[in-house]
Amino acid sequence: MPYSRRGVLALGMTAALFALPACSSGANSNGGGSGNDKEVEVFSWWVGAGEKEGLEAMIADFTKKNSDIKFNNAGVAGGAGTNAKTVLATRLQAKNPPDSYQVHAGKELASDIEAGYVEDLTYLYEREGWKEKFPKGLVEAITVGGKLYSVPVNIHRSNLLWFNPATLQKAGIAAPPKTWAEFLTQAATLKSKNVTALSIGPGWTQKHLLENVLLGELGADMYTGLWDGSVDWKSPKVIAALSTYTKVLGFSDLKSAAADWQPALDKVVDGSAAYNVMGDWADGYLKGAKALKFKTGYDVVATPGSTGVYNFLSDSFTLPVGAPHKGAAEKWLVECGSTEGQDLFNPQKGSVPARIDADKSKYTDYLAAALAEWQNPQTKIVGSLAHGVVANNAWNGEIDTALQIFVQDTNVGKFADAVAKAYQANK
Ligand code: GAL
């Protein structure tokens, strides 16, 4: 089953989800406050255009409130944190953690909890009164064994198809496709007019596309079943969806793939490509760095076959075990969990706030629609593969390896088999 509306947004049941901490007296209960708390090192991958602006806004607010703490912005560039995660893993293994690091809510965080990398933050939730401020299903995604391990700053949506209205108009296309079959028909038209139907970037963007072709072809329930072992990767419907993926990719510029998500979107902006499948950080980039107007300069719809479904992911921040400046890190986490912090960060980042009590008036154009959809009781919620919600790190890593081969050899059966075997080996 997809995450239920009630599960993700309902309030009042949160307390039942986790036991009260034995001690909830604040920083020192956690061993925090030791050492020099006059600086804080925060690790993320929000370095590039469309990523850094929101972070900088939150840092400015943090610095204003904590003028005695020097902020060390330890960012490692690269979309979806592909480079950052490698650097971070080395640091965590070497017991040289930053004071706080970015991690996705869901199985990605669960992997770090199991590895013993992050502290229990339940006491902070108690102290800040956060238990009732985040949706229940999101709290579930950051809870293991009744304990809360990170502070979510936002909700992003993965299943979005971005386009430039002028390009569609020029190609005689009345509206973006509602199914992947319709996409393939449009793609043939676009090809005949020398327009790339779909721009693509590095491996993680190919995985991001894969999850959304699977979602559109299989529907929310079956998509969710792919990640909990209840849907067979080698069943005819999944094989057919994977085969659609190879066809979609066949109309992309895979051979000259962009180096990251921003240059892939640039091709949509300049009209050389018609569509790009990307999360809503694209909104931050297009209206921010590119200074484009929503609806005229750029527009967006749900990826084909996924109208009414929110393929979600959430960025959160942790307190690593052995963080050198725990007291300062705690203050950063308070900033991340605050309404002020979230309402400064999210409007620029292209995400909606994780908190349920944020100031709606700050979310306009695309984000107003996103917030309404996120809060609509009819919306079905599923979790992203490429951004850490549904698969643990070990399985996700094996999917990456298999996908690298799959996009080249397009051998559907071999890929399905590799993913199914990797699930069994890592569940
Ligand atoms: C995601 C992350 C987003 C955005 C995106 C592109 O994994 O959750 O906040 O940064 O990568 O880098």
How would you characterize the overall build of this protein?
The chain has helices at 5-9, 52-65, 82-93, 107-114, 122-128, 136-141, 165-170, 180-192, 203-218, 220-225, 236-250, 261-269, 281-287, 326-337, 339-349, 366-375, 393-409, 412-426, and strands at residues 39-44, 70-75, 100-104, 143-144, 147-148, 151-152, 154-157, 160-163, 196-198, 273-277, 299-302, 309-313, 315-317, 352-353, 380-383. The chain has 427 residues and is α/β, with parallel strands linked by helices. It has 2 domains: 12-155 and 315-375, D-Maltodextrin-Binding Protein, domain 2, CATH 3.40.190.10; 160-305 and 392-426, D-Maltodextrin-Binding Protein, domain 2, CATH 3.40.190. The strands form 4 sheets. The chain has a 5-stranded mixed sheet. A 4-stranded mixed sheet has the order 14-7-12-15. Helix 2 (52-65) packs antiparallel against helix 15 and helix 9 (203-218) crosses helix 11. It is globular, with a radius of gyration of 21 Å. It binds beta-D-galactopyranose. Beta-D-galactopyranose is lined by residues 45-46, 51, 79-81, 104, 156, 261, 279, 281, 313, 315, 387.
